[in-house]
Amino acid sequence: MHLNIKYISGKIAGALLILSAVVACHPQKEVKGISQKKDKKVALTKVASLHPERQVVLPGELKPWNRVDITAKVRGYVGNVNVDRGTKVKKGQVLAVLEAPEVVAALGNAKANVSAAESRLIETKAKYNASKLTYSRMYETSQTEGAVSKNELDLANSKMMADSALTSSAQGALEAAAAQLASQQQLVDYLTIKAPFDGVIIDRNISPGALVGPANNGGLPVFVLEDQQKLRLTLAIPETMANSIPENGKATFSVTADPGTEFEAVYARSANSLQEVNRSMLTEFDVDNSDGRLKAGMYADVSLPISRSESTLFVPTSSVVTSSEGVYVIRVKGEVADWVNVKKGSLLDSLVEIFGPIKEGDFIVKNADPELRDGMSVSD
What we know:
By secondary structure, the chain is α+β, with helices and mostly antiparallel strands. Among the domains are: 1-37; 40-52 and 311-379, Beta Barrel (conserved putative lor/sdh protein from methanococcus maripaludis s2 fold); 101-190. It has helices spanning 5-25, 101-142, 150-190; strands at residues 40-41, 44-46, 48-50, 54-70, 76-81, 88-89, 94-99, 192-194, 199-204, 211-212, 223-238, 250-255, 258-275, 280-288, 299-306, 312-316, 320-323, 326-333, 336-341, 343-348, 351-355, 363-365, 378-379. The protein has a 6-stranded antiparallel beta barrel. The protein has a 4-stranded antiparallel beta sheet with strand order 3-16-21-20, with no helix packed on it. A hairpin with a 4-residue loop joins strand 13 (258-275) and strand 14. The radius of gyration is 45 Å and the shape is elongated. The relative contact order is 0.18.
């Protein structure tokens, strides 16, 4: 008997191809006596809804409650210097006195101008009062027909009006001279440099005899004053925590200069806006430093309690898969694996916060494996 080898080989190859297609379409069934893989066994866990408060440690910086660079507002030579670095001062206390003879001379000239303007005003007022009285008398006399000519009455009225104008001009000149005097007096007052608030002088850049002023002293301030009785603890809160800072909350912190001591700070204010440079929000806590133990400029390790405004979903960290295909958890519905894309939030011990189209109580794979593909059959 002669067999067509090519024909038989083609039939076998076709049968194997059909069998492979059937196996691929029905992986959980037995096809023509061939045994398939069973459902993949996995451990399941539930998605939990939690509202935890947790502690995070962030770097912070202590800043003075108030800080100001004190500069000379007028040019002058330094006369007396009454304070030095480290001096505690009160508001209004004289820190230094400048000498500027030309400014003082200008003040004397302004005072003389005011005196001259006052005298001029007195003179013009007297003339106006006299001409006004003359006009009034002539007007009364003119009521008797023929007693006063109309021309004389008009001249008297013109004289009164002219004196009135001179009086108004003298009044304006006096006001201008008074304003100039006040301005010059302010410049003289600027020669005495005073403390704008209670604090400590932390820097001094002048000595007696030095020429200072708005454009002098090499751009350095005359003094630097800080109020250190109360400090601002400034933190840069990451974007992920920007809505988790409780109002009226408290924080504890330590500094390297005194590592064995915990200090307390009270939440005070926030910028409520993220900085584009580092995507963080500046937040301030107030610190009582009446004992002077802390120093402005210190860095601090701040332990801060944070919590969401409402409950969020948490799953074991092992339940979240991060791969080139995305970040997801594997939900099990009807013994079928269902990939659910999520975003990760904060960590809480062995749990991680997630956000996505998933809800509390859903069953997910506890130890997720990327090899457990979307749509595969599973069993627990």
